Structure formats: C-alpha cells, structure tokens
Amino acid sequence: MAQPVVIRNLNKLFDSPDGKGNRVHAVQDINLVAKAGQLVTLLGPSGCGKTTLLRMIAGFEEPSSGDILFGEKRMNDIAPNRRDAAMVFQSYAIFPHLTVYENVVFGLRLKGLSAAELKTRAERVMELTGLTKMAQRSPNQMSGGQQQRVALARAIVMEPAVLLFDEPLSNLDAKLRETMRVEIRAIQQRLGITALYVTHDQVEAMSISDLVVVMNGGVVEQIGAPIEIYTRPASRFVADFIGKANFVAARVTGAGELEIAGNRYVTGQDDLPAAGSEVSAVLRPEAITLSAAGGEFRGSVKRVTFLGNVAEYLIEVEGQGEWLVDISNPGMAGVFPEGSQVGLSLVARSIHAPAR
C-alpha cells in the first residue's frame, strides 16, 4: 500500500576532503511531503544534494539530523532492506548471469514466497512492463531500454510502499528517454505507488511529475507543480534553470503592474513588492511575439535556428541587450532571416518577477 513520505528538517554533513576538519553541508534543512501515490521529482544541477537526499530516504546514508517518515513511521534507524522501499538505479544493476525472469524474481526468492505466488507476481509485473516475451533472455541480449524495464520490474514486483529512482534514464539516448519516461509515469500511476525521482533533466521532471523540488547548493529553492515552477519561479536560479529565460530590469508601478522601458504591463502577479521597487522580471522566449511592423520594442535578428515546430531567435533589442525568442509553427508563420529588423511585443500575463 502506498505511503506518504515526510521529510522534516533534514540535514546531512560530510567531512571535507581537505582534511582540515571542515564539514560540507550537502543537504540543509529540507522539509518535504510526498503524498501517497504522488511522483515527486528532485531536480537540480550536479552537486545540489538531490542524490544524497534520495540515499537518505533509501537508508544508504544516515542523516546528520532531522526525520524521515513513511506514513507515521520514523525510518531513520530502519535498515534499507526493512524500509518497504525499492530503488531503480542509473546503472540498472541487473545480474548479467541470470535470465530476465530470474532477475525479476530475485528479491521475491529472498523473501521466501511460495512458487505459485512468486510466479503470479512475476508474470503480472512482466506483462505490465512489456517483458513477457523476453523472460528467458540474457541481459546482454537486450537494449538499454529493455534492461531498464528489467530493473523497473524487479523493483515494483516487491510491491513497495515507496519507489525511488536515481537518474534511471541518463544512460539512454534522447528518443528512448522520452519513451521510457512516459512508460515509467504510466506504470507508477497505474499502480498508485509513491515515487521520488532524481534527475537533472528539466524536461524529464516537467513531463512526469506531480510535484517538482528544485534544489541548489543543498537547499530547496522551490517546491511546486510543474506549471507553477515554470510560470511562477520563486527565484532567479529557478527561472534560469527551468527552461530558457530573458531577465530584464523592471519597476513596480502598482498592484500586479510592472513597467519595462516605459511600457506598462498588467501581469496579475499578486506578490509583487511595493510600488516603486526595482525588480528583475522574467520573460520566457515563447511569451514574446515578433512582427515586421510595430511593437513595444525594436530589434535586429542576430541568429535564427529552424527546429521544425519552433524557430529560435537571438535578437539584439534596442536598449535591452540580447533576447531569446521562440516562435511556434514557423512553417506557417514564416521565418525572419538574420539581419532583419523586427518589432517585439510582450504577453503581459506571462511576465513574472521572482521574489529573489
């Protein structure tokens, strides 16, 4: 049965490798609730503490302070094999000398299940993960995506309350990653398992998560649904890390209202500072429109990249520096060549000023 995962004031300090007695605060004062059945992504750059946090939840690292709970049960002193959690590793960690079937049932054999129960559970999970016809294959006869399915099947056949993923798709090519993340999300939702998923891939996090936890330097920058993280970033770091962003100087002129280079925009943002405050506003590239005629700003196209469904522009905007602009369906809209003079307009409701 799925369990919520509750993290309270969690910290992890490591001894510094310089040998001078200094300590590195890898995870600092983390508070998090993953509701039963949710998929929560821990997202951030390398070294931000996301894998250390996941390893503490799994029991492979001991917290320096704070609490980890599955439901109402404190896990801090519970051994990893007794936590009712299963982990899918980046390296797959499947046994090369065992068949697919034997890899899947390995953990069940250790639990001493009857042959009938073992067979029933294994066959159900192998069907769910599309491995039924590969039961007698050796892992070295399988593609990376198929091996990842074996690792996933071996984890979920244990029917854990919590499923943990440590960058499980990073070894796959781009197209296979896209396919596998859809499959993982579909299986997690079908089974209703609580899952925590570590990745540094923003697209992966945005596409599969109920909740995204953005980490930086061992601390949580923001927790929210993918659309909230993207459209209402809490900090400049989050805005810059999630997708692409232009940052422009702005001044608060009233409730939910910003002025940029003399142009006023009603953004609807309800947490702006007092009127007169100077802020840095985020302009997402897709929230800027281009035209050959007028606009609030004028600019010159420095670079255009045609990507099929999107044309990506780098535009030198008069008085503002360089802006990134994305225009969808360029096959219909047409493409401005390099050197073109263009007008730019902003979508007011898409402008956001992070609090920090």
Automatic annotation (TrEMBL):
It comes from the Bacteria. Residues 5-242 form the ABC transporter domain. InterPro entries: AAA+_ATPase, ABC_transporter-like_ATP-bd, ABC_transporter-like_CS, ABC_transpr_MalK/UgpC-like, Mo/tungstate-bd_C_term_dom, P-loop_NTPase, Transp-assoc_OB_typ2. GO terms for cellular component: ATP-binding cassette (ABC) transporter complex, substrate-binding subunit-containing. GO terms for molecular function: ABC-type transporter activity; ATP binding; ATP hydrolysis activity. SMART domains: AAA. SUPFAM superfamilies: MOP-like, P-loop containing nucleoside triphosphate hydrolases. Keywords: ATP-binding, Nucleotide-binding, Transport. Pfam families: ABC_tran, TOBE_2. Belongs to the ABC transporter superfamily. PANTHER family: MALTODEXTRIN IMPORT ATP-BINDING PROTEIN MSMX, OSMOPROTECTIVE COMPOUNDS UPTAKE ATP-BINDING PROTEIN GGTA. This is ABC transporter ATP-binding protein. The lineage of its organism: Bacteria, Pseudomonadati, Pseudomonadota, Alphaproteobacteria, Rhodobacterales.
